[in-house]
Every structure is written in C-alpha cells, then in structure tokens.
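Team,

Forwarding the record for the chain on the shared tracking sheet. I've put the sequence and predicted structure together so nobody has to dig through attachments.
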Amino acid sequence: MMTEKQNFFNKLRQGLSKTRNSFLANVFSAGRKVDAAFYEELEEALIVADVGMKTTEAILDRLKKTLESLKIREIDDAREKLISILTDIMRPGDEFLAGVESAALLIVGVNGVGKTTSIGKLAHYFVETGRKPLIAAADTFRAAAAEQLAIWAQRSGVPIVKHMEGADPAAVVFDAIASFKAKGGNILLCDTAGRLHNKKNLMDELGKIKRIIERELPDARFEVLLVLDATTGQNAIAQAKVFSEYSGLTGIILTKLDGTAKGGVAVAVREELGLPVRFAGVGEGIDDLQPFDPEAFAKALV
C-alpha cells in the first residue's frame, strides 16, 4: 500500500513535470558527457525554471567544483550531485515546530496566492498530526473570506473565531487568542487580508496583529509564514523581500507547484532570502499541502 509520503512525492513529481521538462531540456539526456556545453545548457535551464541568476551562479559554481574534484564525467553521476546540492541549499536546518508545545502562525500574502485555502489545509494537517488548532479569520476585507474559511474549518472539525465583514482584524485576533486559551489549543492559525506588498498602511496593520500575538501569547512560538504562488516565479522573491521588512518572515508556504514551469523559485527563496520553505502545495485536495521535503523536491525537480 502506498504511504502518504510516497503519494505526496508522486503528486510533487507530477506537479513539477512542467518545470522538470523545461529544466532538463536535453541537459541530462542519455549518452552525453559533462562538458562546457552541459554547463551552458544547465545554466539556461535553471534560469528558465526561475531559479534566478544569482542562485544559478552559486549552484553552477558548487557543481563544477564538486564534479572536477571527483573527476566526474558521467551525466547520471552529475545529476545525483546536482540533487545533493539543491537539497543542501533548501534544507531548513530544523524540523518545523518539533518539540514546540504551543505556536501562533500568522499567515500573510498578496491576493490570489491561495492563502485562505492553505490555512484550511494547514488546520487539517495539524489535526492529523495530533495538534489542536484554532483559526482566527482576520481577513475581514474580502467578501465571504471568513465564510470560506469556516467551511474549511468545518471539514477538519477545527474551531474558528470570526467577526463581521469590515471588523478590525486585530480585534478578531485578540478574541481568537482568548478562545484559544479557553479551549486549550496549541496551534493558532491567523488569516490576514491579501495585501499588495507596496501598501505601507496595510503592512503596518500586520505589525499591529503581530504585537497583539506576542503580548497575549508570550510563551508560544511565533511564526510568520508568507504564502507564495509558485507560478509567479521571480516576482515571488520581490514580494518576500517587502513582506520580510514589515512582518519579520520566518518561512514560506509555496502553493500551486502543480502545473508550473517556475518551480525553481523554491531554490531561490532559500538561497537569496535565507527563508525555509515550510509547506508545499501540489493540488486542490485537503491533503495536498504537506511539509516541504528538500530532497524529495530536488529529486522531483531533476
């Protein structure tokens, strides 16, 4: 019987097929050797996959040094070394929330990246892994946002705190924290309105919500996760830089990896911004958001 991890890897591999096909081109075709043309084609393929120029140069430099020191000329061996390098780059250095008794996750992002559905899937994931999540529906600007989130909460049996449309988002979070404490929750998931990353007043509001969480839940691990749409490629990097300035990002949720030719942005996010990808989304199903596995991703990409 296929394990959940194997099933997710298969979805990840299928989802990254467009990236992989453009990424590979003929770089790793059978019978060829590691030569100057190989490096040129690999550089082009990495850039096409939206790994980014800076990160591409770093990867090629490491790969060349590794292959030359080991005197590797076979293409299959070069592929394995590339997988290892990509895995090392994307490795977060820790297991997300491992050993953490209580945590508050502030979920941020621009409009249309799949933020609300990601929160619904996160709630399901945490229930499945034995946690007690509660959702704060602090997106009070988008019509029916709270109702949409309430449907996801109901599917997972997770409590949700929401106010009327147009209410103060910080007030929603404050009330949600009170309920969170009363219900003995250990994972608080806070939705926020989709924000254009160049709107300072909206970014300042995120700071207000953050201060309330830190004040009311001083002993909880506080994480700010930015939801990025993989299909936007390098534009996602620009979004992350601005959000990081205003809300102190600690990690990334990368959605819509299925069917994009720009999956390489996951590598760029880690290398250029130093932010770990914590979860990856590869479909519409409630189980299609899972913890990011760097090695599985690298293998699926290459």
